[in-house]
Amino acid sequence: MGLAVTFSTLAQDYALPSGAPDALTGGTPAMRAPPMRSGYHYQSAEIRALQDDDFANPGMLWVDQGDALWRESGAADEPSCQSCHGEPSSLRGVAVRYPRYDESMGGLINLEGRINRCRQEHQKQPPLPYESEPLLALTALLAHQSRGMPISVSIEGPAREFFEQGKTYFYTRRGQLNLACYHCHELNPDRYLRGDRLSQGQPTGYPIYRLDWQTLGSLQRRLRFCNTGVRAEPHEFGDPTWLNLELFLGWRARGLLYETPAVRR
Amino acid sequence: MLKARISVPATATRGEVITVKTLVSHPMETGFRRDALGAQIPRNILTEFECLLDDESVFRANFHPAVSANPFLSFRLRAERSGTLTFRWRDQHGEETTVTRELKVDG
Amino acid sequence: MDDEGQTGLLSRRGCLRRAATLSLLSLLPLELRASPQDMREAMLAAFGDRPIIPGRVRLTLPPLAENGNSVRLTVAVDSPMTEADHVRFIQLFSPENPLPDIARFEFSPASGLAEVETRIRVSAEQDLVAVAGLSDGSLWSASVHIVVTEAACIDALL
After folding, report:
1. CB count, 10 Å around CB of B85?
2. Nearest CA in chain B to C74
3. Around A119, how many Cα atoms within 13 Å sit in the side-chain half-sphere?
């Protein structure tokens, strides 16, 4: 494919002016700073219709399950989510701010981490593992509450250094194919890899229902899938690397609207 | 117990042909896939679905592994009388999940 | 694929078809692919040697599926759906999936309309078949061609 770009020629500052020449293609500024677009844009009409159908969208099964879990009490007489928060809709607007810097942890926490902390501190329950059905269900429930709201993570203050690390990750080559996130999702959205139409890699609809997975999956599952796609050893679920990248991706997608549960190919 | 979503119109007029939709959580594991270590993942599928109006069977389906995970069905019913719609799925082991909805027919 | 000629070799559709076919051959052990013969046997088991007449059945699928795990399918038969004249069942078959049987739907006069929408797995480019059985004992069929494309990256199971 002639991906002859060295790291030094990559955008050092993501917010490059839109007319900057593109090292890969020798030009098309539109590919450098395209309008930000959700992955929804890159799906077929069939898949978009499935996402838009609030009954048939399979992700809604997890939203329903999350709603049931929301009302279940914790260990012994510990409270349910509902005992403290009321209806799930009271948390509308929360998911779009994750991941965020958490002072007590001295690091980033994502939505899954926040749910698990509530479970441990207030419900005296063990944390739920990534990709477990109840964690996917509760994450889907909370993210769904923010559907239609713009992503608005903060990279101010102590979050900045984590953001910078996430950004570095995005532009760093890895794996046997020696590709950075950047190569597919910034230089080549809209182009095809075999039958796949590359997207910009915007985290608007997680957890997502992928037809390929035949189930719901987290953003970190998708990122691990990208690791294996470029034949790199995937980072573990919950690895700080992923939290940093989640923050960078959230900042990069700022203003795009939440659409959980999204349906993707 | 499966998670099921059912869509039935709140009310129907007598003689109207309504659309009923069902979506149910199930992996519909084909038995042809292998896990990361190469072990065959055993088949685990729903094999039967039935919709009854009170005691009358009004629609039935048989599923094979070619039915997608989290099976979706949309089918039609002529609303002649009010009653209880029962939706029943059975898996290959004979385990059943049953959900009911009231059908209200005017006139 | 032989009839594609020179242009077919270079066309996008030709590439997609080859990609789909080649990758499926490499992914599925041969014993996991049915054949048109298997499908004929499954239909023989279901209907014996009764004649199946092409027509009356409307089978609708997208011509090209982006993912074979979940393909929307609608099948319907025009019928008054009375006691005297109704559709008793519609059965779906595949000549290329690992198994020839897909699903069977049974109707009654209470159905009002013999129409079903569902989502199925389609493992390769093929001609899917729907057979409808009417209350007068006649059998009718429709067949639809579908192409399945392959993704660039394939996720290992968790």
Report:
1. 19
2. B74
3. 19
Structure tokens at C41: 């046997």
Over residues A51-79, the pLDDT tens digits come to: 999 999 999 999 999 999 999 998 888 99
Find the residue in A nearest to B25 (Cα): A61
Strand segments (E) across chain A:
100-102, 107-109, 192-193, 196-197, 208-210, 215-217, 263-264
Which residues, at least 6 apart from A173, have a Cβ–Cβ distance to it below 8 Å? A7, A179, A180, A183
Over the stretch C33-42, which tens digit does the pLDDT of each residue have?
778 899 999 9
CB contact under 8 A, C70 and A194: no
pTM over cut 0.80: yes
CB contact under 8 A, C119 and B67: yes
Q: Is A243 helix (H, G, I), strand (E, B) or coil?
A: helix
Q: List the one residue out of C96, C86, C87 whose CA is nearest residue C129.
A: C96
What is the ipTM score, two decimals? Answer: 0.96
SS3 C6: helix
Contact A119, A127 (CB under 8 A): yes
Of C62, C66, C155, the CB nearest to A213: C155
| Alpha carbons C18 and C24: distance in angstroms, whole number | 10
pLDDT of residue A12: 37
pLDDT over 50 (residue C25): no
Confidence of residue A10 (pLDDT cuts 50, 70, 90): very low
